[in-house]
Amino acid sequence: MYVPPPNAMTEADVAAFLGTHPAGRLVTVGPDGRPDATLLPVLVSGSTVRAHLARANDHWRRIAPGSPGLLVVSGAGAYVSPGWYASKQEHGRVVPTWNYSEVQLRGSVTVHDDPDWVLDVVTGLTERHEGGRERPWAVTDAPPAYVRGQLRAIVGVELVVEHASGVEGVEGKAKLSQNRSDADRRGVVAGLRTEGDPAAYRVADEMERALER
Question: What pLDDT does 167 receive?
Fold first, then answer.
């Protein structure tokens, strides 16, 4: 991923982003050279990403043990009109762009066709998404025989982030008009808030937080 210095996320930024974006697109390449991609809810712990795939999804069968993979975790994105820039009135040398945030994790991927391993992942994902609810649902609320049957319909997948010398295993990019003046950036924030689009509002919020730093 191309990450200009002003757009680079810090390690803390990446951790916070992954904490609030619980799904990512796993991309691998099969033995025939054809890429496969599946959007998955994920658990990220240190340098390990765990998830599960439907057994009926051929993606997992095309993953050789230890093969390279890429997990793309995307945040909100929005079109930026050059008409929002204060500098448009000054010189007119402005063009459209797209603001967004994204984290990419690269590493080796392994499939785990093991019910106990998969149960641990399913339990962790459930606890993550149910934990803040008034009456959280737990895997143990379902009959054990039913859970075992459901586990047979999925397989586990694990990505271990690489830490090889000279290789970026984790990259985070927040493209939030950091190359523009504060006046231009505030103009974009105001413009995004007129779009009536939830994604545009989220990008505006992120830009405001960046401006306050």
Answer: 55
Task: Give the residue among 34, 33, 9 at the shortest CA–CA distance from 21.
Answer: 9
Taking every pair of Cα atoms in the chain, the longest distance, rounded to a whole number of angstroms, is: 70
- The model carries a pTM of 0.92
Alpha-carbon distance of 15 to 74, in angstroms, equals 14
CB 74 within 8 A of CB 100: yes
| pLDDT one-digit tens code per residue, 110-138 | 999 999 999 999 999 999 999 999 999 99
Query: Does the pLDDT of residue 149 top 70, yes or no?
Result: yes
DSSP-assigned beta bridge partners for residue 38: 26
Q: Judge whether 85 and 180 are in contact, CB under 8 Å.
A: yes
Query: Which ranges of 32-113 would DSSP assign to H, the alpha helix?
Result: 87-90
Q: Is 186 exposed, middle or buried (0-12, 13-18, 19+ CB in 10 A)?
A: middle
Q: How far apart are CA 25 and CA 159, in angstroms?
A: 12
Q: DSSP secondary structure string, 56-84? A: T-TTGGG--TTEEEEEEEEEEEEEE-GGG
CB atoms within 10 A of CB 203: 30
